[in-house]
Design brief:
mainly beta; 37% strand
């Protein structure tokens, strides 16, 4: 069995990317995890890096130089988003399209090839400005929480971005690549139903030097879909206001960039996630049932060659063990930001699992504690 296959098998067994998986490759890695309660739309992004790959959180429009960033080995942030279906052949921000909800047939396909520009039409003002944040939210019937307020957190989004800068230090004697080696989408109710409609674009920009600001000229490296993802028209998505075309870089190797021997390079990276409206699984019947949590994990390494770079999104799931028999160790309570986390007798991947309640109950949430940060594992792990 190959090293990559063995690593995949271990990842399936332990669900999330943890230290045990790192030992297989011996490579520098970065780890990104996103939890989303579909109805509440709360997302938390966690990162961890080590050795010769360092990370700094960023914003899409920021043009700060890497020298002003605090590159580190752990990074935790959060955001909110409510995704509604869009379509794109490139993954570029100004090339997303959508159609009216009245133009969608029962199985999810469009009745007439009439599409709107998400960047222009969708983000324009809604007809009913007291109820909807913009035209895209109005089309999706997503109303503002406060009708008199204008908050982007109330708006439906066509995609969501996870943006960061990487510092890659190649201390070896050969050229090394920054590869995306795993991108796992795991849905919390242990089913893959419907999640094949998700797509992820990996976009990146090399920053010339430590003192050169990024220009935000992101190049799409790969668009990743699950193996079971299926377009209404084979490998085609919306290209213009009235046509579909082949998807660029579909399931191409996800390589961020290269670093010469003995060199240090900087990259600004965007991991862009959306619901592909042209996927056959993207229909009201499917997504009406998505009311649990899902997680997106991305693993990146600095290594020689590109053989480990992935070409597809993994949607394998792992059955969760019932925690009803878990007990609490009252002497091992962790207090973080004024919140109590109660240590249980359960583990995940060798890490202790903490409960949000004492005693453990049906509605308890579960966490592991890394670098004094609670990392939620309620809906994405198999407990030991």
């Amino acid at each position: 069995m190959s090293t990559k296959a063995l690593r995949k098998e271990l990842l399936a067994a332990i669900a999330m990317v943890i230290v045990a998986a790192i030992a297989l490759s011996g490579s520098t890695y970065a780890w990104f995890a996103v939890n989303n309660i579909v109805t509440a739309t709360g997302m938390t992004v966690k990162t961890q890096v080590s050795n010769n790959l360092f990370i700094a959180g960023d914003e899409l429009a920021a043009k700060d130089t890497p020298a002003t960033k605090e590159f580190k080995t752990a990074y935790v942030t959060s955001l909110k988003a409510l995704l509604q279906p869009t379509s794109t052949t490139s993954g570029k921000a100004d090339e997303f399209w959508y159609t009216s909800t009245t133009n969608v047939k029962g199985l999810g396909d469009v009745a007439v090839a009439e599409y709107k520009d998400y960047d222009v039409d969708g983000l324009a003002a809604a007809n009913d400005t007291t109820t909807y944040y913009n035209a895209f939210s109005e089309n999706a019937a997503v109303t503002k929480a406060n009708a008199s307020a204008a908050s982007a957190t109330d708006a439906a989004l066509g995609y969501v971005d996870y943006v960061f800068q990487l510092k890659a230090v190649n201390t070896g004697n050969n050229i090394a690549n920054v590869n995306v080696t795993d991108l796992n989408l795991v849905y919390g109710n242990n089913t893959t139903t419907g999640i094949s409609a998700f797509r992820t674009a990996i976009l990146a920009e090399e920053i010339a030097s430590e003192t050169t600001a990024p220009q935000n000229d992101f190049l799409p490296k790969s668009i990743l879909k699950p193996a079971e993802g299926s377009y209404f028209t084979n490998n085609s998505a919306v290209k213009t206001a009235s046509t579909v075309d082949a998807v660029d870089n579909l399931n191409a190797k996800a390589v961020i960039g290269t670093v010469p021997a003995g060199a240090t390079k900087y990259f600004k990276v965007v991991v862009r996630l959306w619901l592909e409206g042209e996927d056959r699984a993207c229909n009201n019947g499917t997504f009406a049932s998505l009311n649990d949590s899902w997680a997106l994990d991305v693993k990146m390494v600095l290594e020689e060659g590109n053989t480990n770079a992935i070409t597809a999104m993994d949607t394998s799931t792992n059955e969760k063990t019932n925690m009803s028999g878990a007990t609490i160790d009252d002497s091992q309570t962790a207090v973080i930001d004024g919140v109590n986390y109660y240590k249980t007798n359960k583990q995940v991947g060798g890490e202790d699992v903490y409960s949000s309640t004492n005693p453990v109950a049906a509605g308890s949430r579960y966490f592991v504690i890394r670098d004094a940060h609670p990392i939620e594992v309620t809906n994405q792990t198999k407990f030991e």
